Amino acid sequence: QVQLVESGGGLVQAGGSLRLSCAASTLTINIRTLGWYRQAPGKQRELVATITRGGRWDYADFVKGRFTISRDSAKNMIYLQMNSLKPEDTAVYYCNVHYDEGKDYWGQGTQVTVSS
């Protein structure tokens, strides 16, 4: 079973930046996508960004041009660089690993709060 631990969340003013990190026990076999999701109070969990097999980066429309997802396979790390943050970005952010056989693994989440 894959273990994922997020860090890097916190309180930031609108227009500021944060970098989220996710440490994984392994990122070496049968991975279909790596990604970041978020869930705001009263809303469903939503996709933020993913890296698909083959190296394609996909982003939700509301973060295009502001967020960048990246990985360091040698260190078993997934990152989300968040720039130009807005109050509506406030949410708990989760990292995710999805395998070809349909299995998903999630971290515990890290809180991001953006004030105006």
Strand content: over 45%
SSE ordering = EEEEEEEEEEE
Overall spatial form: globular
Q: Total number of β-strand segments?
A: 11
Low-confidence stretches: none
Gap between N and C termini: 40 Å
Question: Count the helices. How many?
Answer: 0
Task: Please bin the fraction of helical residues.
Answer: under 10%
SS-based class: mainly beta
If you average the pLDDT, what whole number results?
94
What summary fits the major beta sheet? 7 strands, mixed
Q: What's the Cα radius of gyration? A: 13 Å
Features:
seven-stranded mixed β-sheet, 116 residues, globular, single chain, mainly beta
Compile the SSE list and pairings.
Elements: E1 4-7, E2 10-13, E3 18-24, E4 31-39, E5 46-52, E6 57-59, E7 67-72, E8 77-82, E9 91-99, E10 104-106, E11 110-115
Parallel strand pairs: 2-11
Antiparallel strand pairs: 1-3, 3-8, 4-5, 4-9, 5-6, 7-8, 9-10, 9-11
